[in-house]
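Data follows
____________
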Amino acid sequence: MPTAEGPADEVAAPARQRWRLVLGRSADAPDLGSREAVDAWEVALEASGLPLFRAPGRARPRIAFGAPIPSRLELERELADIVLTEFVPIWRVRAGLAEHLPAGWRLVDVHDVWLGSPALAGQVVAADYRIEVAGADATALTAAATRLLDATELPRERLKGGSTVRYDLRPLLADVSVVGAGPPIVLRARTRFDPVLGTGRPEEVVAALGDVVGSPLVVASLVRERVITGDEQE
């Protein structure tokens, strides 16, 4: 008998299982923005053969990334959740996904997580980046990194919606250090995700370092090594 939600055979199957995917993306993957990357993943999920949960009103299964996916950025350990309507063993999840990954992506790991846990995006608090730079020596950059971390504020400007917005980078910078004296010189930076202040951008950290050393730095490569949840940070 039809219900308020439509015919009985159109009622969505209930969610029963949630899997957390650990994903990587190569530097030469197709240049897609965050929305386009999600679209590519939803198409791939359709082809996986897994019993994917579809929310009411959605034609495609949903993948929920922990953080927005920047274009032109190599990723090593991104987190994303999918929800199934059946209990499925891990080998079947791995097999279904491995055969239908979007171009340039790889499956690093899979974890069964509690269905009722908070949304992944709300759990991500930071990200680690590995950055190769040129334009200053390791000694100068080490001193500049110390100055950034010792500062009480780091006023910066960024473009947003066609206008320039002033903000303070300091509360969004958790750490920055020189880990390879090179060449090339390698930096490691951890930036925070804040629901009010926004997200610390690694290129802004590099620009702030360049301001301290007195010359612009050139980014040779930029990798997001992983995103970090509150539980991991604790």
Notes: DSSP finds six helices and eleven strands in the chain. Residues 34-47 form the longest helix (14 residues). Helices lie at 34-47, 90-98, 120-123, 138-150, 202-213, 230-233.
